[in-house]
Amino acid sequence: MTRNRFMPTVAVKIGPNVPLQGVSFCPLNSQEGSYFAVCGSRYISVCLAKPTGETVIAQTYEDEDPEEEFYCCAWTSIVEDKTELLLLASGHKGVIRVINVSKGHVERSLVGHGNSIYCIAVHPRDGSLIASASDDESARLWNIRTGAMVAIFAGHYGHRSPVLHVDFDPWGEKLVTAAMDKGIKIWELKHCQNEIEKSHYCANNQSPDGYSIVDESRKRQRIFKPRFVQLPLFSTFLLHQNFVDCAKFVGQFIVSKGTSNRILFWQPQADDPALLPWNNQFTVLADFPLPDSDTYFLRFGLNTERTLLAAGNRAGAILIWNIDELKSKPCEELHISEKPPISECAFSPDGNTLIAASLDGKFYRWDRPKMAE
């Protein structure tokens, strides 16, 4: 039987001088197709990948700051009286824009990082909680219902250079961060559970600033401050030889990519946090070679089940691995004739569409043909 491989569908150029840095699929299903967003320069485009193969640009946002340059985007939804579909984007200016796609306007802006933001991750069980990774050597946890900063992961045992990536584990109990210092760290959210609960309490009580409420005497009372978490559960600098620009959980395991032409699938062993700041133990389960990826900001994508991994390089090639097979050889290779650098890859929720954002200003689409019954 012929393998159900990805076939090229379309390439779309967003605009002149708009190198695309990030791509993210909306996790909610739509009868029209799969919505996704691409970002670059100071522009964010919401696109629809129709089942017919057609791709249309549904909405475009232009940031008011001409010096903004978006590096990342992510989707979330908040269910209160009704489901609100939100698109998050950030970059050079260090401000997280929360865009209400349903209403077509910026809901709020999250300010607190001291420098550029390179990655945004959404809590897997609570869409109002997001994490960000920044050039200011920290990762931060936010409640986007009010814009309150809940926790800061940095300090004495934190990273010593820009944090390039952050991701939640499947249960929303941990964060993994990757940085230019070659370090990968795992942080437990249990240390800031009190702040998380109080941030929700503030949101439910329509706090004017996200941190305080009005008591019975009509005086404003601050009920929490952001938690400063300095001690990670796990820390190592030995997995990669250079910058680590992408790290994501696969169950209790982790996939990470450095700028040394390889992606590693490994298991952390953090039996004794007291060993910090020395290196904790780990077991490498698979090594996925990715030629021509010796520069950072080339980030891989995982499908919803986190069994397929797609990563592009600076020569216009995209390699796909089945993580479960633990084989170094990719199960599929895709090539773009113009050979543009691929900044990020993303799978649709059903795993049948792959979008690659490129620094040539285009996004490229591939689809799996439907199998005949």
From TrEMBL:
Pfam families xrefs: WD40
Keyword annotations of the record: Repeat, Transcription, Transcription regulation, WD repeat
PROSITE patterns xref list: WD_REPEATS_1, WD_REPEATS_2, WD_REPEATS_REGION
SUPFAM superfamilies associated with the record: WD40 repeat-like (SSF50978)
Domain of life assignment: Eukaryota
WD repeat start and end residues: 110-152, 156-190, 335-373
Assigned protein family: Belongs to the WD repeat ESC family.
Protein name: Uncharacterized protein
